[in-house]
């Protein structure tokens, strides 16, 4: 058994290859079972109750694994009726395959990726009414929330039409609009939230979070003048009256076209500020003002008018976004201010994965103006992966005909396998047509956003591999061998057995075939043409270039390639780097900057790469992200911070089994943890952060040498700064457009703050090198006090101004959970974001508004929830096990009630 520890842009893997031990208890069974028939299959799919029950995140042992994390779970299958049938199978998705299972009457087999099969073993005696058939499993991971428990278990049998088991289907709660997983049997007990014997997150109780989220007083003038992201310089003008925009604005433009700012004006219009002949004069002039920074602007609002001077069109655009940010929806006015502002980083990005679970064109078109409102300027679209290819490519229709659809076809002849709980015919699939992509590019341009396409290669490429195999088979059936082989991506004689980090055995392009590079060139050529047609030149192409695991070893074509002395690579371990080098040259030859994930780029030879390269560093902070950044900076490359423990917005907001998201890099990522990040000094974050289970870690940024005296790490080159920072939404467990918004907002605002604004309290980088841990005090008490004060300003602006604007523009943001503390006979409640109404109830009583600490006087269960800023949408309710029953004297008379 080989133990491979690795980390992924979507999950932490402790991958055990290739074992699955199945322990069966042999029983003598007399059975009068019959092979299942179609009516029985249909009935069983409708009535079978499936429960995935966590037994422990801390089992005494983890059979078949040496992983640091392990959980023990049980699948329970219960029929309310006697069903004496055999010959059935259940196909279901599970993120981490078990290393051992145990059952008296069932067995499990791993197929590919996250697909597993459960079926009766020879001892199976049939379903008896109310009696559960169970299968225990030990999994080399932890199970902390329902997000990883994928839906749509498929009941099937040879020769019969399959059907999804009804109890494994999710549904949207009509009140909260959140996804409900009836098959998930987790709880909030400590055995769920503790994943390790040294788990430091046990201290993050609701009581502790209540203290952490206490609201401090912030002057109303600061909230009124607040802008997110924070301008570099802003001063209020004392003695000046606020300016009402209720009658609209009258625009006067100099040095720019209307189209260059139309999207910012559209936002103002949505917020109630339209262009009117009698409106407040707003003069916008583009003229170099001495700043070398793109996006620089100056804004002055006083004496009943607004003047904007910008260095370029983007500066004018962002100045108008700041005008919208200043607006109070309650008064429709802005304060008198003077602003001088410019971005911290040129690259301020958001990565959205539409490959795993597709997100519609309409979702992207809604997202773009909201990104622009907070001055983000790069949309990195992850358009292809193992589970889907989501962009039409002229001349290669198979990519979307087969690769954009999942269904129950394990041979991938007409669609892809139903990975990630995709059901039989997956309604969450699809792709962007040429017209769709053109529309997205035009909308991005209007919002001053560059679209950066990514079609991950050479790993994460199963959709492309299977689509081109389909193309090969179609042309071979027509006796056209040349066309069949033109874009083939796999060596059909390759017998290599491997398992990717996501447990695929067939997801990697063969990098030894010229047809692979013909395919890459074809795809990139078409994408360049799409951008040109939209008037938005392709500036950066992200090739992926990560996570190839053990492929090509037994490929005859690769063996011949490596043996050819004319080539300059002669080992399988060098092939990933070789592929990236060749693809980088293809990209650069088209005038496009090449980009990729740091792990694949690290395998390249600098002299074989273009001079202009962007490395997206996704190593976590405790695992030495600062060392990767330094190594790639010294290669002369641009660096985009993609540190998962800060920037991955598919991780849970909080420690709660009902939250969704992967947690391999961070157990909780909320607005505050992002706000506290110091992106210009990665090692210094060790003073305030822990590892994935909250343990302190140290970050050594001093020069370091190995045993032979070779220099293996040194600090950043003098004066080097990263090019930018990017948030990430991976979509393995994000199945709906509005839930993608839920995962992004409001914490994307904190990421935008880090990308635009340099906080005064951040610890400057030490180019001579420094060690940091939680005992060092470079982030001094004074700096921490300043940070916490600025956090209060930021979060109160979010709660009192920005969330209502998100409501107005239709963004489905997360309404935070309520945290509470019992003290001296009273229950105190709050949320991480102030300014939101809180409600409480007992049992099925009507919801009442929390206005002050609640007096308690006997045992009961209390339920708490917060409402959206506009009061129309409740968040998830939380149960509070109070030591007393609340005395119902705190009802707000006449307050509206939400049932």
Automatic annotation (TrEMBL):
Catalytic activity entry: Hydrolysis of terminal non-reducing N-acetyl-D-hexosamine residues in N-acetyl-beta-D-hexosaminides
Enzyme nomenclature, EC number: 3.2.1.52
Keyword presence, Ribonucleoprotein: no
Annotated signal sequence range: 1-28
Keywords recorded for this protein, A-Z: Glycosidase, Hydrolase, Signal
Similarity annotation: Belongs to the glycosyl hydrolase 20 family.
PANTHER family the record matches: BETA-HEXOSAMINIDASE, BETA-N-ACETYLHEXOSAMINIDASE
Identification of the protein by name: beta-N-acetylhexosaminidase
Organism: Pseudoalteromonas fenneropenaei
Taxonomic lineage: Bacteria, Pseudomonadati, Pseudomonadota, Gammaproteobacteria, Alteromonadales
